Amino acid sequence: MFTAFLIKYAEIGIKGKNRYIFEDTLIARMNQALRKVEGSFSISKEMGRIYVNTQGPFDYQEAVEALQHVFGIAEICPVVIVESKPVEELGKDLISYVEHAYPVHNQTFKMHVRRANKRYPGTSMELNAEFGGILLEAFPQMRVDVHNPEIFLQVEIREKVYIYSQSIPGPGGMPVGTNGKAMLLLSGGIDSPVAGYMISKRGVTIDAVYFHAPPYTSERAKQKVVDLARLVAKYSGPIHLHVVNFTEIQLAIYEKCPHDELTIIMRRYMMKIAEELAKKSGCLGLITGESIGQVASQTMHSLAATNEVCTMPVFRPVIGFDKQEIVDIALKIDTYETSIQPFEDCCTIFVAKHPVTKPNLEYIRKSETKLQDVIDDMLKTALETAETILVE
Ligand code: ATP
Ligand code: MG
């Protein structure tokens, strides 16, 4: 019965001329999301509101689900649109709306009429009273409650008449594309897809980089990362995923550096390569799924040591989260099941039994000098041979 959706968005940060950028980007993202849904949709901006109009049959569930992945949307209200007509006739449409939208009819309700078409006779107050009366007569078990109604029934009288009362939560945030681009270090774990989702939610476009180490890490492990990128892309839009072959560098570190420093040194080279790729693709920052204290390489000392090689800001949106809090978001955004598939990543193979938890930067730098004859060429090769996959 619904033929349109009224889209409500949060007002924060979208005043003045930014409002148009925000709205136009939001509409572009909605169009992108709806392209994959069965049906014909058109989006219109009217008097500070955004409507999704449908032509002909469409898949309601799929359309709602697509819109629930578009950042910037706070609420999705399914709307019934009828021709404008006299009050008694509209009353019948309202009765049929309530009949179809609710299985039982014993709730409290409140009418809210907006007369956008000022030629329509009567004031909003009068129309509220008239429609309210019509509904009370049709549904004797319903009651009016103006303070805390179970059904808030809204009627907007324009060229046509829009009836709605339900609100489906959107994902919130800002439309992707309103806030620059960042490079996500995406591993096959639980945390990094969540980190990408969180930064993307603030309107940031995402590129990603994955370090793999064949034959120590399998094709299947790489496919898992592609799958995760695709799940994040449901929210963020298309992601350019750079797959960097890290084997040579990892083996060199393994051969030449103290094993308790392996992870830190490896993480430093990952950050370096990620930053180079980020610069080349116009990213303004890096994103990781690090959380203080989660593992040896994420103590405050380790984070400081890793961070030291970057000049770009590194965004770590889950830095203060407990594992369970991250898992909760992973479950919500549907990445969890994929993340827990048991495919090794390069970090699990080259881990030391007793990694340092308080790396000393001087020692780390000294260890890294053991790589000085080979590392520049290796970094160059890693960058040059990186494979880029467009994931959408
Ligand atoms: P995740 O954080 O995704 O669950 P993890 O817990 O195994 O993975 P670490 O290995 O400690 O995390 O790495 C911390 C962060 O470094 C990750 O969140 C991710 O951003 C980045 N990272 C680690 N390994 C890789 C990799 N192979 N490719 C790309 N980024 C990686
Ligand atoms: Mg982690």
UniProtKB/TrEMBL annotation:
THUMP domain span: 61-169
Main subcellular localisation: cytoplasm
UniProt binding sites for ATP: 185-186, 210-211, 267, 289, 298
Listed InterPro entries: Rossmann-like_a/b/a_fold (IPR014729), ThiI_AANH (IPR020536), ThiI_fer (IPR054173), ThiI_N (IPR049961), THUMP_dom (IPR004114), THUMP_ThiI (IPR049962), tRNA_STrfase (IPR003720), tRNA_sulfurtransferase_ThiI (IPR050102)
Keywords: ATP-binding, Cytoplasm, Nucleotide-binding, RNA-binding, Thiamine biosynthesis, Transferase, tRNA-binding
Pathway linked to the protein: Cofactor biosynthesis; thiamine diphosphate biosynthesis
Compartments, record wording: Cytoplasm
PROSITE patterns: THUMP (PS51165)
GO cellular component: cytosol
EC number annotated for this UniProt entry: 2.8.1.4
Annotated protein name in UniProt: Probable tRNA sulfurtransferase
Native organism taxonomy: Bacteria, Bacillati, Bacillota, Clostridia, Lachnospirales
